[in-house]
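Q: What does the predicted 3D structure of OmpA family protein look like?
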Amino acid sequence: MASPENAPTPSPQTPAPTQAPAPVKSSSPMNLTTALIAIIVVILFIMLMLSMNNKLFPTTGDARDLNTLEERNAQLRAEANAERTKLGLAPLPEGSAAAKTMASRLRRDATDLAALTLQWQSELEAKENALADLQSQITSRDQNTQRLYAEINKLQAQIEKNANAESLLVTLRNDLQIAQNQLLTYQQQLAEAQTRPSADTLAQLRAQLDESQAANIKLGQQVDALLAKSESSVDQAKYDELAAEMARIRPIYNRQRYEIQQLRTKLDQARLFIESEKDLPAIAAKLYARLKTLDNLHGQALDQAYQKIELELNARIVHRQDFATGSYEVTFDREKMIKNATATRAKPDAFFLVVGYASKTGTQASNYELSKNRATTTASVANLLKTPQQEVKAVYLGQTDRFDKTNPLKNQICEVWEIDR
């Protein structure tokens, strides 16, 4: 197409016409320009329509790919929303801008996580190396420990071997010391033999006691015979002589009897006295346990409790032995009462439990020792006079005021209980 610049111009040799230009010819360049613009607009419109047609009417392959992408997008959104729900977060927004932002954030987080993963993996490898080093050190220490234990056992064996010799030497020294102590004891016993009978002379002292008792009885009979005579026939000199002899013999007799009683108490204590209630026989343990519960009873209530014990445990009191303050001697007349209660009236196979009490005056330690001796002495007398089938044990119950709240002497007693077996 010709442009306005290419239109024919008059030659310089030819003068220009003087006629007026026609109206159509003067507007032809403007029409051409307008036509050109219109053509360009039409072409652009056609191209736009074709592009719109392609978007409105996609091909089958494009539609299938688009559906696949939309389904995948929906699946990913659902999975992401499920994970966010577990974490307590709000679901993803529906807008595409937010999705792009979230995608950018996820890519950034993924990059950060990848970097952290690499860092953690590096740290984990370092820790594994350190752990392997520690494990190697532990193995080395275990080996050293086993070696040291072996050396310790070896040294221990040597020490025990040496200790046997030292132990033998110590044993010999102890035996020598014991022998020296026994020699000293024998020397002391030999020095005291003239004034204090030992356990070895118990039978001899008993024979002397019986002899003194017989002489005492004989003298008493002689005195009674003299008193039976008339006053005119009484030889006052003979009477005075017999009375003086009786007065001389009685203290000797009593002293010998109490010495024998004390020796017998010491000899019988380990066999008759029960230190712990746990060592009592079953039938005696039941009685002991019941008596411990009666400390708050007095008078008639205590008597009723004793009657109940007799009905339920087949146990009864056959003798009460009282003592002077600070003493554990049993007088001759009380020995007869114990013999009458145990060997004479009791059943042939009865079990006797001597229960010792102490008043609440004095210390617990001194009361225990004194009551222990009292109970053992009473049990020793009963054991001496019992039948072979009978059995006797002694025990200490404790301090009490159950028998009399105002008079401590009445609480310093021993009860002799007979238990049926």
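A (community wiki): The structure tokens above were generated from the sequence. Residues 199-268 form one domain. The chain is about 65% helix and 10% strand.
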